[in-house]
């Protein structure tokens, strides 16, 4: 049968409750849409969920624009034909890529300087891939402007770095207190280190003067090494997104720099970069959230990055989850020399928590001593929500059955009155039948279709930081994990629009399936 003779074989899993338990069935999507109200007026795109068990025509790679269904063999054949075409194209280019690169290395032969028309013997690939300069013009073009460009001179058929006296002077400041020039080594995103003479004065700290030039000093006072802001942003992003440790990053950019002939006596980066990054974290956080101007009345709606835009603020249903993540830190790794730069933005004060836990454990039995931590979390949550608000709190916890009985024994009436409990759906079926009936989120009102496994997804992200944080000082570790959590929250907030839209489609389709079953 040809492609146009085939039909879409899309199905959706429907889960529904009856008196004797939970049942699951598969319903063909075409038949559902055709039989709805006796007419086939709905389209697949109108009801098919973007996520879940249903298959949408636009999401299935085996379904073309015309809605035709490719068979497995035909799809496999089409996929490998595409791969073969790409391989054939690359094989034709491989030899030419090498020869073209070698030709470019000798493009200065017979060229004239772009500025003075003298014989060219220098190039600056940062200025332009076709920039040809004589030695004098190359030096003049990069003494004050474009000072971080890598200029090379051709000698005996080899490109060497051209030594140029480079100077940075802040033009909008006339100092009457006296100025002094000091040489610093500046590191760019390719790992190249450039010696620059920078004009400092007594009017402001050396670190601030470097910041005006888009440089981040390695030390707060009289730095001898500085990094371009691009280097710090690259390291910060790789650290959060790819969990690249500072030591690995330094090794990578040093390896990149080793591919280029450079001057000797280069500085070691790791010992100073690790502390510089911690200051850069809080610097970026304040710039992103604008918390340094949050006291102004015109920006009263600003937050410090921890407020979810989708959660109810005055009334509605608040779904929360609790769980534990065991990624420990070696106690011998060191002691804190300062408090965390992020403070208690996301991590609670350890002394306050331990004091509550010790007091609570004295009144608890040996079997329930570990429940002191969720009790503290619940009390802290209720302290942040006014009792007069119309927010209904629904809490998912792996052993919510034990926790609720523990709260009743210890007469935690405030928690019992204001919090509804359920067990995450995947853990629920491991409990006794009584717990499954009483605490299943599919049976307890207010939990909807949430699975309660949101923290497992968060733990999957945080576990990647275990290797780099286990040797850190406590305050350093708190800052790294806080920054990681803020980064994760920002990504999730950015995807809320599409997520809510997809879930609305899924909810509407589920309601339709249940009514028709």
Automatic annotation (TrEMBL):
CDD domains: Bbox1. The lineage of its organism: Eukaryota, Metazoa, Cnidaria, Anthozoa, Hexacorallia. Residues 172-258 form the CxC2-like cysteine cluster KDZ transposase-associated domain. This is CxC2-like cysteine cluster KDZ transposase-associated domain-containing protein. Signal peptide: none annotated.
